Amino acid sequence: MAEDRGRFLCFMVSAVLLFPEVSCQQDYSDLRGSYCASRREGCCPGRRDGCSTPILGTLCYCDDFCNRTRSEDCCPDFWSHCKGIETPPEETRCKTNKNTIFYHTCQVVAGRAELLCERNECLVEPEVIASVNTGGNRLGWRASNYTAFWGRRLDEGISLRLGTLLPHKAVMSMNPVKPVYDPERLPRSFDSRTKWRGLIQEVKDQGWCGSSWALSTADVASDRFAIISEGKEAVHLSPQHLLSCNNRGQRGCQGGHLDKAWLYLRKFG
């Protein structure tokens, strides 16, 4: 009887979702709402097939029997309402299915639940970290997980953690400035950290905003002011000013061109 009930629920959920690539599991934990809490009779001890409530065109259960191995069909609020146990928040992260990497999301569209599976590579892949670290320190460095990047897609990292767009064709066709110097007069070594100590901007975290074009332009300009004045004009130019005001041909947090940023600084300061 229990197996028949489980098979029926599995069939009904598959038919409602109309998503053939997702394996059927009787797990309603991601569906929010009052199910057991809305029952006048409340929760039930033991096994009672009538201790149920509608969900996604079928039934979920509020009796103790619903919490059994291999065939769980409890209502989403069974643990919180019937047992007083709050479920921990679901961890948003990338999951793998054999060799295909998925980023799983669930959305409610027009009052109906839809399970969306997008084929996007993860920004942090545990398998790659383990592969790099195999054999100790043979590469001279070790990979690790950065919490801020966990659960993020690779395309998000490229679009929001970078941001400098390629120059247009006209800029690419310009001739570079060729400096004239005697290579013999160049020092054997040079370290800007000691030569210009205290005059160079520290590395900044741009956050989840594709603003590397604005941060690098503002910081390099600030560095040059400080260096040429030998510290007398140690200004800290604002990258936010470029993001907010340098909007002609630029995309703000969606990316920008370095040549346009420098042109803006030259014209408006």
List keywords for this structure.
two-stranded antiparallel ribbon; alpha+beta; 269 residues; 5 strands; Cathepsin B, Chain A; 3 domains; three-stranded antiparallel beta sheet
Q: Over all CA atoms, what is the radius of gyration?
A: 29 Å
Order of helices and strands: HEEHEEEHHHHHHH
Percent of sequence in beta strands: 5-15%
Outline the biggest β-sheet.
Answer: 3 strands, antiparallel
**Overall average residue pLDDT:** 79
How far the N terminus sits from the C terminus, by CA atoms, comes to 78 Å
How many separate structural domains?
3
Q: What's the number of extended β-strand segments? A: 5
Based on secondary structure, the structural category is alpha+beta
Write down the overall geometry: elongated
**Which ranges are low-confidence, i.e. pLDDT below 50, for 5 or more consecutive residues?**
8-25, 96-115
Strand order of the largest sheet: 3-4-5
